[in-house]
């Protein structure tokens, strides 16, 4: 008997599992009920199958002795042991210094092809863009400007002051402003945890999210494998939100998702607390000192508020408001629209990593040009994906060489309107039809 419309059969599920796009296979542990940075890394180690080494392109390296010497901090090296770090290596290092240094730790050539389909040919789009960007970055630097530092510190201080004043006067108006400030502070901290270790990355931990966890789930997973089956931020939101175009997606459930997913946006921060407790109990992660920051906020609010119950309500309200703003802004303004490539759509022939990034990201014209809006609403997102370790304040300097490279490769880059991206997000949530045409960027402009 034929399956009813929207019914997920074993055959359709198996088909989806086998359809790994250009990847060699469906990711191990992707469908585990409790998704975390631990399960993502464990699954990738299974899929990459390189033992205790680090893989870059088709060579294996032993970076054990380099852990404490890494300029970006030891965590980036420790976390990725036993995985293919080609995409991370290429996008994090603009010049040739790292390539020369890497040869010191060479062990042997890899025995099997890479699981990832992405390429980095010398004459390809991304390598060409990096060569053009190098002299610019040598001149202006890659680190934050004084304006960026002052703006982030001021936002964090504003949050702390508003949080304590809200508790002192039991004010829901002040705590709402504190939630807004917290969302802005956390969004700006996203800029800093992509970079070498620094204290401002821990501003991210003022909310229940973890900068350490997000270095895996966001910087290593989402940034390198955007909108693919290896993108943790795609799989983690299931079953709350289904972004991938799947004919087996129940259209009625998809329409309902538009409404009840907004509850999830408000609850995301608080859900993260429960998930971390479970992961700690299961031995998947350990408590890090910065994880205690949200609870220190709660204790201070209990001390200043009229009653602990009132303080707890104020704290939950603050975290919920911050959660909605922080989660909703990037979801609706960066990666999700029916004309943007998602796993299941036709795969481009040229799998240059930079071109594949262009297929999966768009920028809003209303945001670009304003550093505060860029940092708080994930603007200049295309360049941020191309150069994730470059501070947001330096990305505008790269637009001339970026436009020149796009022109050289025949790519008609264009900024999009926020309303187009916003409505496209909802269209993608209910989208059940994969794009059958090649997702080449010039054939994939938003209307």
Helix content: 40-55%
Number of strands: 3
Please state the average pLDDT score. 91
Q: Main sheet: which strands, in order across?
A: 1-2-3
Number of helices: 18
| Beta-strand content | under 5%
- Uncertain segments are 1-18, 441-447
**Sequence of secondary-structure elements:** HHEEHHHEHHHHHHHHHHHHH
As a whole number of angstroms, the C-alpha radius of gyration is 22 Å
Task: Based on Cα principal axes, name the global outline.
Answer: globular
Distance between the termini: 41 Å
Structural class: mainly alpha
Largest sheet at a glance?
3 strands, antiparallel
Task: Supply the number of structural domains.
Answer: 3
Secondary structure topology:
Blueprint lengths: L9 H9 L18 H12 L5 E3 L2 E3 L12 H6 L6 H7 L4 H6 L3 E4 L15 H16 L5 H24 L2 H22 L17 H12 L9 H4 L15 H31 L11 H12 L3 H26 L19 H8 L10 H7 L3 H6 L12 H10 L9 H12 L18
Antiparallel strand pairs: 1-2, 2-3
Helix pairs in contact: 6-17, 7-8, 7-12, 8-13, 11-13, 12-13
Describe this structure in words.
This protein is an all-alpha fold and 447 residues long. The chain folds into 3 domains: 28-123, Cytochrome b5-like heme/steroid binding domain (Flavocytochrome B2, Chain A, domain 1); 146-331, no CATH class; 337-443, no CATH class. It has helices at 10-18, 37-48, 74-79, 86-92, 97-102, 125-140, 146-169, 172-193, 211-222, 232-235, 251-281, 293-304, 308-333, 353-360, 371-377, 381-386, 399-408, 418-429; strands at 54-56, 59-61, 106-109. Helix 11 (251-281) crosses helix 13.
